[in-house]
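Quick board copy: two proteins, each given as sequence then tokens.
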Amino acid sequence: MRRVNEIDFFFFWRNLRKHYLPILGVGIICALSVWLICRYLIPPTYKAEISLFAWGDPNYNNEPRNRTALDTNGRMAPANQGEMTFQDITFGNLLVNDYQELLSSRYVHTEVQRRLNIEFPELKEIPFRFDASLRKQTRFITVAVFSHSVEKAEKAAQVIAEVFIDSVREIMRIERVQVVDRPKVLGKVSPKTTQMTLLAFILGGGFIFGLFCLRDFFHYTLRNSEIVKAEFDLPTIGMIGVTTDKENANLICMPNKSKNYKYNHIVENFLLLQTNLQYSLPQKESAQTIVLTSAFPKEGKSFTSLNLALTLGSNSKRVLLVNCDLRKTEHEYLQLPRQPGLVNYLLGEKTIEEVIHHNVLGTTLSVVRSGPVPPNPTRLLEIFQNSGGLEKLKKDFDYIILDSPPCMNMADPLMLSKLADGTIIVANSRETPVDAVRRVVEELQKFNINILGVVLNRYSPHSAGYGYGYGYGYGGYGYGYGYGYGYGYGETEKKSKKEKKQGRKAG
């Protein structure tokens, strides 16, 4: 899991740039679905309004009354007929609230429905509803009618006004309610197709974007060398990309017997790993011994071990690859018999020379298979650690690569690392959690093991935020490198008169 202080703008921008296609896809699908639903499944709702003005008088019989007021001597005096008292205003405000309650009553609803069914029987099956609201600090009442039919909404607003006026006259004995604005259809109010479509696009894409961010937050992998340096203070000595050659996926670094150079970015990655190893390993006369391990299985450890051995052997170096993972079969694609192997040597059945396969694949590479699966692999590796057989092999080879089991919850890599000049941790840059590699590093450092660095397998410069390009041609070549958000490689083999005349040109 990431640290909280690592969540910044670039964290979200990187996830958006990396997953923009599925985010856009889900957003478009959600938006299209909502648009189709609003367009064809949800019937439109129309709104009609009518405005009423309600005025109340404390005299329910609407008969003139003699208003009085106190004169300067404190005696009752007749008031002007047009004068409005505070009592009138208060009572009028109370009546307006009564009007609103009356409009919301079951009596009015039932009467409105009855009259509509009688006067407009063809609209009987079309549902409708209406709401009454008071305009703030006024005596105006606005009645809004909603229906799937424009005609029903308009007719219902007209009938509601008539029923309300009649109800006020009959129940409250007041005739001071007037229609200010005649019924008017304001148009379609729902569904709001445009707004709902845009909202569905934002919510759908945002939901998937949030899932990617959560996954990146909790599934924190060794995406680039900066993370390796920040988390473990170790160098990244190799970054191996993803091969597209399915036929030679495991033997990608086989020596090229053709005279024509053919660019392969995986081969270049292993050449860079070889160069970094030359500066990382201690200088000595005997063979350099390297252990490759990982946190979990299927991290690309055996793939890296074999192709690193092929790369080292391409310089006429004598390289020995020993499969020390006694629990499972590896390197089956070498088409070598599994027995006799390392287990047979450790059990005393064979000598160390008898279990070595020389000149594998027509190269200087030698391989020792694991042999039959023993009942106690860890105990056999203890024997290998104390047998001195590795010291004998150092005289005959320049490099010895020990393909170790995964380090998580196993003692095998620790014992093998004690025999080696350095240990390399192989991690899947797309899948291996940082916490898992951290536990491996802490376990190795606890025993003072020399960790040469980390190799990032299945590395993607695109996800790490870098990019480069390379191309060449006969009669001229060009090379470019730059930071960017893309990754690509390719080759061009073009013969042109212009290039031949220009000769060699740097670009």
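And the next:
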Amino acid sequence: MAPIVAVRQLTHAFGRGALRKTVLSDINLPLEAGEIVILEGPSGSGKTTLLSLIGALRTMQIGNLQIFGQDLLGAKSRRLMQTRSQIGFIFQHLNLLNCLSAWENVSTSLRLHPQIPKRNYRPQAVAMLNAVGLEDKVDAYPENLSGGQKQRVAIARALVSHPQLVLADEPTSSLDSQAGRDVVEIMQRLAREEGCTVLLVTHDNRFLDIADRILHMEDGRLQS
């Protein structure tokens, strides 16, 4: 079976001319269906840049990157949008909308899928919030949620459309030890239940035990 993600000889740089700086060098990375991979390394090593390229959030420059069997190099904006709609994102800063309740924030992910009827938004969002242990916070607004609860809403939003791939960027950075453990265990359990692949970027070595593979990135290069 072909990998969900296939990265080959990927190189990426910022700036031009004398200011040009290479941030990723000759990256090779397959991600198989259903596995949890942790990407760790120091700040500035290129982890978030790699995540954004895999998520079709940045334009590729050099190399080959296939997601779900589709080549992203030179892909049109429509293709990139279709790719993004099949990926669940969990951002470091959560990006919850304060004007929306928990279930409404989760349902924003469903709006990317026109085949899902609007009448299904609330039932599907509530079911996923129940799965992350927030059955009593369905109608709560972000201002009334703790940091760990907000992170659970973000996880529910990422998984509610049953994506094949979840990309998580420092999802425990603002949480204490117990809340962080709860969050990664929820991600691990739901990934197994949903059968999706998870690529998790973290500085936190307390949660490395959930991974099938651990990769280290330093100075734009990937190491096992």
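Board note added afterward: Residues 33-50+82-223 form a domain with the Rossmann fold fold (CATH 3.40.50.300).
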